[in-house]
Specification:
The strands form 3 sheets. The protein has a 5-stranded parallel beta sheet with strand order 2-9-1-10-11, sandwiched between helices. A 4-stranded mixed beta sheet has the order 4-3-6-5. Strands 7-8 form a two-stranded antiparallel ribbon. 37% of the residues are buried. The protein contains 7 helices and 11 strands. The protein is an alpha/beta fold and 227 residues long. The protein has a domain of 137 residues: Rossmann fold. The longest helix has 23 residues. A hairpin with a 2-residue loop joins strand 5 and strand 6.
């Protein structure tokens, strides 16, 4: 599947918790300096975000916190914020997380300090500025509850079979892991109606252009609302 790019493995993937259907939140254009990009594992979120940042250098990618140990080549503050279990607990008690989840015995989350550094949004001649969160659906729900003004975009594959081919083509998962990911993906695909914006990542260039157009449109509206 040459047109369905591989997703970065920067955040873990977990089954969504049972939730009632959530209606899409209206975008507050004057405050939408946070962009949430979500969707099934392997759908190409990371590739699309890199293409978006190439067009709009003012967009920064949020760095997640985790309790797992660093892997070879990973750097503090670039790949993750590496926290001990005790420190993670302390941050939870302080209300320091915008969202967090447990995966494979380790915890992962987005610190509110990451959102604070995004500033008040807007942009300059080079385009919009703000923060991009690449997270799974349950995390996106938590962000929606805390920041209904954030822009949330669901990235969908053209078909389930295309997603299967992408996961198989990565060569990083066993057959059982692929089937498990696909099972979770089916549940997550059913949640896309919760999101005001859905982009089908069939052709990479088209999907990247659609995402960039969405961000630029909201940025222009934000400038108008602030003037």
């Amino acid at each position: 599947m040459p047109h369905l790019p591989e997703q970065d493995a920067g955040r873990p993937f977990r089954a969504p918790a049972p939730r009632a259907r959530v209606q899409p939140a209206a975008i507050d254009a004057a405050r939408s300096h946070v962009l949430v990009v979500t969707g099934p594992s392997g759908v190409g979120k990371g590739t699309l975000i890199r293409a978006l940042q190439a067009r709009f250098p003012g967009l920064e990618l949020s760095v997640s916190a985790t309790t797992r140990a660093p892997r070879s080549g990973e750097l503090e503050g670039r790949d993750y914020w590496f926290l001990s279990d005790a420190e993670f607990d302390r941050r939870i008690e302080q209300g320091a997380f915008l969202e967090y989840a447990v995966y494979a015995g380790n915890r992962y989350g987005t610190l509110r300090s990451e959102v604070d550094r995004a500033g008040s949004g807007g942009g300059g001649p080079a385009g919009p500025s703000g923060l991009v969160l690449e997270i799974e659906v349950e995390g996106a729900r938590q962000v929606r509850a805390a920041m209904p003004e954030a822009i949330q975009v669901f990235i969908a594959p053209p078909t389930v079979e295309a997603l299967r081919e992408r996961l198989v083509g990565r060569g990083s998962d066993s057959t059982d892991q692929i089937e498990s990911r696909l099972e979770v993906a089916l549940a997550e695909l059913g949640s896309q109606r919760e999101f005001a914006h859905v982009i089908v990542n069939d052709q990479l260039d088209n999907a990247a252009s659609e995402l960039a157009s969405l961000v630029a449109r909201v940025w222009d509206s934000s400038k108008g609302a602030q003037s």
